[in-house]
Design a protein that fits this description.
Layout: H1 2-10, E1 16-21, E2 26-29, E3 31-35, E4 38-43, E5 46-51, E6 55-61, H2 92-103, H3 107-118, H4 138-143, H5 151-168, H6 173-182, H7 184-190, H8 197-214
Antiparallel strand pairs: 1-2, 1-6, 3-4, 4-5
Helix pairs in contact: 2-3, 2-5, 3-8, 5-6, 6-7, 6-8
Amino acid sequence: MRYLLTLALCLPAAAGEIVILNTGAQLAAERVERAQGIVRLHTATGLIELPEATVSECLRDDRPSPTTAPARHPATLPAAPAATAAMPPPDPRALINDAAERYGLPPALLHSVARAESDYSPTAVSHKGAIGVMQLMPSTAAQLNADPRDPAQNIDAGARHLRDLLLQYNGSTFKALAAYNAGQGAVQRYGGIPPYAETRTYVERVVGGYYRLSGETPAKHD
């Protein structure tokens, strides 16, 4: 019934009757019948039945039938607008390069963190709930006023967080990475890299990746 109702509303009114609904909508009908609480509208598209309670009034339509517009040749029809090409997703590697430059970090270090954390995946979620490329915990992302599911915001916030940790630990890459992985409280409690196998493996992996990417000579453990 809704399909027929939509067609009737869109059709030009022909000589016959106009049915006005309680909503204010108007329906054009060639003929209208009422029976047992039902209003039947005979239209050019078929029969519409409406509850009588939904009809406000019926008026005679004395307007002349509209002249049918001549059909246009298909060649004169306006061309359909071209579909807008979908924008490709941002490249995490390019975002990391931009963030490294923005916060004065070695790009190789930030890339190594991204590889160790999520292998550059914007959709990665750890078993602890860390999200995205830089694996931000929701609480950390909130402190940095970032949406962790947005790759650009995630990488920017992760770079800021690492920069702040490096400043806090006077440039100690090992302590900063340990705090990035295990939290600042753990680093403070143990006075350096905490004795967690996961954290120690993480720090060695990131540092090793940094030296491979940068070509620098490994420094002594700080």
